[in-house]
Specification:
heterodimer; A: mainly alpha; B: mainly alpha; 69% helix; 0% strand
């Protein structure tokens, strides 16, 4: 029950964060110079046409009224029209978000699948060569520019390996199933299309690898230090005194509490992961929000820019709420006390 | 853990010397600071040590296009025949300037807000910490993209956009330290003696946060340089012909893999400086024993 209250409280704060974000992004979009109506119509449109569009888009109204309009739209889940594509921003983002979501999801999965075992092994061999190697991986993961790593992987795969595709989400001749979730790897599996799955999976591999490097290292380091902290606890000492074997101590009693800090870190770092996804998407021509976002930013397509930032913020908030739930699942103390330690 | 074991005739060893001894025996810190010193020197002395100082501008030298690294051109030349080594040296100036300005604005702001939120609590804490929550939800790179594009893309706007979000990390850090310190006796004592809030914040609490701030700032230097490079890689940072490492990687990438030096060597230069600050921060963290700072 306490845990439910905790989640409700977190959800309310998240709503507040999103409102704050909407004010920030609205201010940036409306206060900065540049006439979006003029940009949308092009330099050859007459002043009357531009003024007409300004009226249609509500740009001639007072700022407060414009913000009310924007918020009213947001609460209906309507991000407005794109000045550029003349389509609802919702549709544009819906098309591109699935690709970004799939990339981010597979990156997180990869980061945990690799990072947690690395951290455990490093903690078990504290100050040994494996520990130092993991530390080195973590440091280089953190300091390698994501675009450089992406380029290196692309060149390596394209010119040396000749096995993995280096651009896009799927091969032009691959049978792409009817969209259910928008995630190609999952849609192909639902359709029982294993050739399509293999194709989508291969396309996903390099971008995820490039994006996950920083997160893998961080998760490994955090897992290591939390494993070492947990190992000093009395109950682990007691388990040892009772003669519980090392392997059982480690996987049954230590790993579970040590799992919480990596989750928390992921929540905090998620924004920068999303930012890096923009760069990686561009290198691999991944048809996600990045190419759409960068294009709309360059064309000063304000509704689209606001939409991309709001969706990024919403994504961040939802990921953090999911992490709150997961932390509750992993750590019963959080469930009972109703707050994070 | 005092480094000096009292011998019979051991002279008194100063704290500074002890710190230096611990620092110099920490390989991470030593390698990190060596890299940082090299990069700083390269950036400061660039006009003196660069082999072709005039290659900084829009120079075209078609006879020397796409030359691989050699004794004459250490890092090779780019697609208009400019010496890449020279441009990397000058590129460091931009990177370091960007990071210094961003952190020079973000760290004092973030630390002050963190001190206020942590010490006063109540409404100040709610307002400031919720504000950081909002800022944390925005990917810095996306924010920088939005700001630099709505304004014109250039170095100043890039710095503005990054600084506008970066303070949050320092606010969170200082807040968590200050919150545990605020009930301690030395703060109580200062208050009882009638010290002003200003005195308590900046003379009592701030010195206790100094080592954490130093470690965090050192780590941040690398990360801000990486974000700046990513921005200019996307074409939204420093505009040509000013040499910028991210831009050089982007331009050189068209010639991969045959002319690898044009993108990979500037890329390695970014990695090198980020590595230096990261190792230095890591070493300082061990030295000051502030495990919680990331």
């Amino acid at each position: 029950m306490e845990f439910l209250y905790f989640l409700i409280r977190r959800a309310l704060w998240s709503a507040l964060v999103l409102i704050g974000l909407s004010i920030v992004i609205f201010t940036i979009a409306r206060v900065m110079p540049g006439d979006p109506a003029r940009l949308a119509m092009g330099p050859r449109a007459s002043q009357e046409q531009v003024d007409d569009l300004r009226r249609k888009m509500g740009l001639d109204r007072p700022l407060v009224e414009q913000y009310q309009h924007f918020i009213a739209g947001l609460s209906r889940g309507d991000l407005g029209l794109s000045f550029l594509t003349k389509r609802p921003v919702n549709d544009d983002i819906a098309e591109t978000f699935a690709a970004t979501f799939e990339l981010v999801l597979s990156t997180i999965t990869l980061a945990f699948l690799v990072g947690i075992p690395l951290g455990v092994v490093a903690a078990a061999n504290k100050d040994g060569w494996i520990d130092n190697l993991v530390r080195l991986i973590a440091i280089f993961g953190a300091v390698t520019p994501s675009f450089l790593l992406a380029l290196l992987l692309q060149v390596f795969a394209g010119y040396v390996l000749h096995v993995l595709p280096t651009t896009g989400r799927f091969s032009p001749d691959a049978p792409i199933p009817h969209s259910v979730t928008g995630l190609l790897t999952i849609d192909t599996l639902i359709a029982g299309n294993f050739a399509g799955f293999a194709d989508a999976f291969k396309h996903l591999l390099l971008p995820s690898l490039a994006l996950s490097a920083a997160t893998v290292g961080q998760i490994a380091r955090i897992t290591r230090s939390s494993m070492i902290d947990v190992a000093k606890q009395d109950y682990i000492e007691a388990a040892r005194a009772f003669g519980v074997p090392g392997r059982v101590r480690m996987f049954k009693y230590m790993l579970r509490p040590a799992f919480v800090p990596p989750l928390t870190i992921l929540g905090l770092e998620f924004a920068s992961l999303l930012g890096n996804a923009f760069v990686v998407e561009l290198v691999f021509s991944w048809p996600g929000m990045a190419s759409y976002g960068v294009r709309s930013i360059l064309q000063k397509d304000l509704n689209a820019v606001m939409g991309v930032v709001m969706i990024s913020g919403l994504f961040f908030v939802l990921v953090n709420l999911t992490i709150d739930v997961l932390v509750g699942v992993v750590d019963p103390r959080v469930r009972i006390r109703g707050e994070r330690a | 853990m005092s480094a000096a074991v009292a011998g019979e005739s051991a002279p008194r060893i100063s704290t500074a010397y002890q710190n230096w001894r611990r620092f110099s025996r920490n390989p991470t810190a030593v390698i990190g600071s060596a890299i940082v010193v090299i990069v700083l020197a390269a950036a400061l002395l660039a006009p003196l040590i660069a082999p072709y100082p005039d290659h900084v501008g829009a120079v075209v030298n078609f006879r020397a296009r796409h030359l691989p690294p050699s004794a004459r051109y250490w890092f090779g030349t780019d697609n208009v025949g400019r010496d890449i080594f020279t441009r990397v040296l000058f590129g460091y100036r931009i990177s370091l300037l960007l990071a210094a300005v961003v952190l020079g604005a973000a760290v004092p702001l973030g630390a002050t807000l963190g001190l206020i939120a942590g010490y006063f609590g109540g409404w100040a804490e709610i307002v400031i910490m919720r504000l950081t929550d909002v800022a944390l939800a925005i990917p810095p790179l996306v924010m920088a993209l939005a700001v630099t594009a709505v304004l014109t893309p250039n170095l100043v706007h890039a710095m503005l956009a990054i600084a506008a979000l970066w303070w949050t990390w320092h606010t969170r850090l200082i807040f968590s330290i200050t919150r545990t310190l605020r009930t301690q006796e030395f703060v109580e004592a200062a208050r009882t003696l009638g010290a002003s809030p200003f005195h308590i914040l900046f003379r009592e609490l701030l010195p206790n946060c100094a080592s954490a701030i130093l470690v965090k700032t050192s780590l941040d230097f690398g990360f801000v340089i990486l974000i700046g490079a990513a921005l200019s890689y996307l074409g939204l940072g420093v505009q040509p012909p000013t040499p910028d490492l991210g831009t050089m990687v982007a331009n050189g990438a068209d010639f991969l893999p045959d002319r690898w030096w044009e993108s990979l060597l500037p890329g390695a230069a970014i990695l090198f400086v980020a590595l230096g600050f990261n190792l230095l921060g890591d070493g300082l963290r061990d030295l000051f024993d502030v495990e919680s700072v990331r």
